[in-house]
Amino acid sequence: MYDLCIIGAGVGGGALAHALAPTGKRILLLNRLGSLPREARNWDPEAMFTKDAYKADEAWTDETTGARFRPGMYYWLGGNTKVYGSALLRFRPQDFEPLQTLDGVSPGWPIAYADLAPYYDRAEAAYHVHGRRGADPFEPPAGPFPHAPIAHDPRIAEVAEGLRRQGVHAFELPMGVQYSHEDPGDGPFILRETFAAMGRAAFDGYPDLLHLKADAEVATVAPAVAHGTVDLVTGADVTRIVTDASGRTVTHVEATVDGEPVTFHADVFALCAGAVNSAALLLRSASDAHPDGLANGSGTVGRHLMRHLTTKVYTVASGTPNPTRFQKTLAVNDFYFGVPGHPTWDGVPLGHVHLMGKHAGWQILQDLGPGAMTIAEANTIAAHSVDWWAQSEDLPVAESRVTVGADGRIGIRYVETNRASHEALIDTLVAALEPLGFDRALRVPMPIHVLNHQCGTLRMGTDPTASVVDATGRAHDLGNLYVADASVFPSSAATNPTLTIAANAFRVAAHLEAEVM
After folding, report:
1. Phi, psi at residue 391, to the nearest 5°?
2. How far apart are CA 135 and CA 432, in angstroms?
3. Which of 27, 86, 197, 502 is the most buried (most CB within 10 A)?
């Protein structure tokens, strides 16, 4: 019998375990897979981007078209952070308040930025975040970053300075890596040459063979397990959450561990499987007491799915090569809440942009599709491009949802919002780059299977008829079930969700330690 059973060892589950391990409570951490193998294939671009190495071997259904697709999901320890790009930004204080966007109002949260601020500090420390406070004049109030920013390569420094000359506040992207300019003992692999050894792009979108990247396994799961109070069971596919006869208390979870049925009992349970899988598990856990799915008295389990509007933008300066190897160091937030003085976009939130890992010609060609250009043309573009990731907030539409079919398969229906403002974000970025010699821009919108920013399916709120969990993360319908992943987000904001997931999980852990366990 455990004090706490955590389902999922990604960002949320790892932070919970990390925070509560020192309390001496008996904690069980369940995860579908073990550690992603550290092998040469980690940095093989063909294996990663053509053969989908390490990706979940399952098919989901696009409920809009009926098409099956293989989602970009990774179920190893650390979850999707095993291949993330380590960008770790805070939400703005306004992101926790009702915010008018082009296509509607983004709802407020039952907590404020101030409630998360100390836990953002803790998350930045755990994830070794490097940045420079004040470089982004639009950032929320906070103390210094734990570590100095990663310096730009020469071409990126040139672009940053050019944008600043035009009044665009390009800043060093906060990154979670075990790397330091000041302290040679900051991590096992600290020299800049390590980045070069990883290849032109073998960071963003790749597993990290060197464990240089501060993913959830490295940052929180491994340190939690090292305490000795956390039992980690991998190969555990949780299939059902079971309550007592009253339906008010979870008693155990059913799982298959290496193909064998096993039950796990605890006093308190925390669901941290990711927005899609957490919702799917509650729907699969329907019972006589919960005929529409566990914790679904509001009828909103699985609804309000968000994933951000995201686009790769290859901006090309035909006269200037870009030999950068580690490119992901620059970001722009000037247009997060609109374009001041613009007749259409003044005060209308557009979003956030930052650099991606450097893409090769064949990757650009793969993005654009067959017949778009020759490989020689794509290689020329790659040699001169600076590669951006643009993202905008989408709205929590009730019709955007996760479903589970009679065959047990997950279905996704996604209703897009704010497309015009997202395109305006890209237009504004491209216009700012034109005076710097950028004469071409290629846009590649991300398809439905790119769900790495999924959130919102078990939304947090004060009204049990319109939300799934309360402000502490506890399910309204159950006394001992908590949720601490991105599924609880009432809105998606426009920055990467990872740091906010971790901060909120640290906040939930503080509540559990003080009030529950």
Report:
1. -145, 145
2. 18
3. 502
